[in-house]
Every structure is written in structure tokens, then in C-alpha cells.
From TrEMBL:
EC number: 4.2.1.46
Keywords: Lyase
Protein name per its UniProtKB record: dTDP-glucose 4,6-dehydratase
Record organism: Acidithiobacillus montserratensis
Enzyme class: lyase
Amino acid sequence: MIFITGGAGFIGANFVHHWLGQSDESVLVLDALTYAGNLESLASVASNPRYHFSQVDICDGPAVSALLKQHSPHAILHFAAESHVDRSIHGPGDFIRTNVQGTFELLEAARAYWNELPAPEKAAFRFLHVSTDEVYGSLGPSDPAFTETTPYAPNSPYSASKAASDHLVRAWHHSYGLPVLTTNCSNNYGPYQFPEKLIPLMIHNALAGKPLPVYGDGQNVRDWLYVQDHCRAIARVLEAGVLGETYNVGGHNEVKNLDVVHTLCDLLDQLRPRTDGSSYRAQITFVTDRPGHDRRYAIDAGKIKRELGWTPQETFATGLRRTVQWYLDHPDWVAHVTSGEYRNWVGKQYGGA
Ligand code: NAD
């Protein structure tokens, strides 16, 4: 069995689907079910006998330890986090609690469990920490892409809390020998992403006839990776990664935010034309930039390609088309996650969800 923290979130849920599809092993999802956790994303595997779920907060060390004793997993894949940059600027406390304190509690529970394992199981155990390229800070237009040796320079409370968690994971390897692996990935997109993030927010607002809010001048550049490619990378690092190493994961898809929105509008124009025949581009509105908005991220994923043979399978064009089609095919999932707490939050940010 493997443990997946945050498995009811966007990437975690995609990973659960990926894992159950490609291995015969069981998973236990550990998730506190915050606003971002959604069991509907796991509904199609709920009756699979290899899928298990426990509602638990990773900050609750004794509860995590009890689950480790009960299920004896050979790996912990740590996705659980507060993950939205805007929220971190408005309320950083939850980010410090889950991303820093929670990772610490999880590492301590993992260390105690790992120390007690018999030698063969001890050698096979892995703690894989899922992190972000945002820990490296922002790039100028002609700076080289982030590599695994780029110094950390986080700029938002989110990226600072993730940087802190990366350092804790590293230290638990160097100080205690815990067998850890870390991945730092660029922006993901795909099915089951909460519609506060750029791509699902734009699809959702476009279909609802609402403004498409683009920060600043829309020229900020991000590297985009289809979520299932990220899942394949994580599975590959778990299988063959060198202990204590970090691996950058990215799609070689540097795109300006405004171009992402234009492409989404063009896809929607084809797949779900507006009744009056005009383009969804008419709904684009420019809004005040996020404070300290990093200008450009770009990731050099050469190490994972060279050493572990991983490359992305989707291009941005094919992945984006799949994503738009998924949101068009799953209006109930979107309707359920956009009720309640999320509607209140987006209402405050963008004048209505
Ligand atoms: P998400 O916000 O969609 O999901 C986070 C999940 O963690 C939710 O299910 C939530 O309920 C759970 N959670 C939050 N606090 C918890 C706690 N205290 N205890 C237990 N569970 C808790 O996030 P995501 O986009 O799926 O990201 C997953 C991981 O990947 C994060 O660590 C994030 O930093 C990292 N990452 C994300 C991206 C991206 O583009 N989304 C890119 C690179 C790395």
C-alpha cells in the first residue's frame, strides 16, 4: 500500500486514478477535506477494493502515526498543502500551518514508523514530497530556466511555505537518513482542478457569461504541464529516483497568461460556440495585478529526462483541448465545487463566481 496525502485535491486525485490504473497496489488517501478537497473527484474509484480513504489532518501527528501502524505502507506521497497563491496573500496562517507544521508532523510520524521497520522494508520505504517551481522565485525575460541547483528565492507566502517544507524534507534525509525524494513542478492543468486557478476559472466564467479576469497586462509567463504527465513523473521518481535528490518537472511550454486565455476562448468558440456567434474573447477584462506577481517561471526538466527517462506526452494544445472537453463534460462536478465557500471567496476577489 501507498499513502497519498491530499489525495482529494486536484493533483492528488489525478494521481489516485493514475496509480489504481497502472499498479495492483492499494492506496490510502489521507485528506482533511478543506475547501479544495473533494471526494467527488474520487467517486469513480470509491468502490474499488484497493482504494481507501481517511479524513485526517496531517498536523495531527498521532492520528497519522496510528494509520501508519495500521496499514504499513511502503511509501508516503505528500501532496497535501494549501496551494493557492492569492489565498496565501490574504491569509498566510493556514499556509504556515499545513505546509510547514503539517509537513513537519508528517516527517516525524514517518521517521518514527520507518525506524521501527524490519531491514528489508526499511530499505524499500520512500517519502516523496510534491513541491513547486515557485520556490525558485521569478525570472527575467532572458534568464535561463530553473534547474535543481537554482537558489531558492520564494516571493509569496505560498512559495515561502513550500520552500520551508522542501528544506525540512531535505534535512530529515541528511539528519536522520529518512529516504526522501522531492519533485518541483511547474503549473499543472487538467481534470478536477478547482476553478480558482487560471485555466478552470476562465472556462467556468466563460461558460457562465462572466468576465474573464486577467491580472495586470497578462504578460506573465508560466510553464504548463498536463496533470497526468506530472502523475507519470511522480510515479517514475518513486520507482527509480535517487534518495535525497530533487527532480524538476515541467512541460517545456512557456506561455503568457493572456495567450492561455486567448487559446481557451478559441477552443470554447469551437467546442461550445456562444449563441450570438461572437468570441468568448469579448469577456476578457484586465484586473489589478496580484501584489508581488512573479513575472516568469521556466523549468529545466533535463535531469528527470536524462536520469529517469521521463518526458511529457501531451503538448499544450492537446492537453488544453482535453481539459476544456473534460469541463464541458462534467458540469455537475463544477457546479458542486463552485457552491458555498468558494463562491464567497471568488465573489470577494473578482466580483462574482
Ligand atoms: P489542491 O489545493 O487542489 O489540493 C490540496 C489537498 O490537500 C486538498 O484535498 C485538501 O483538502 C488537502 N489538505 C489541505 N490541508 C490539509 C491538511 N492540513 N491535512 C490534510 N489534507 C489537507 O492542491 P494541488 O493543486 O492538487 O497541489 C497538490 C500539491 O502539488 C501541493 O503540495 C502543491 O504545492 C503541489 N504543486 C501544485 C501545482 C499546481 O499547479 N497545482 C504545481 C506544482 C506543485
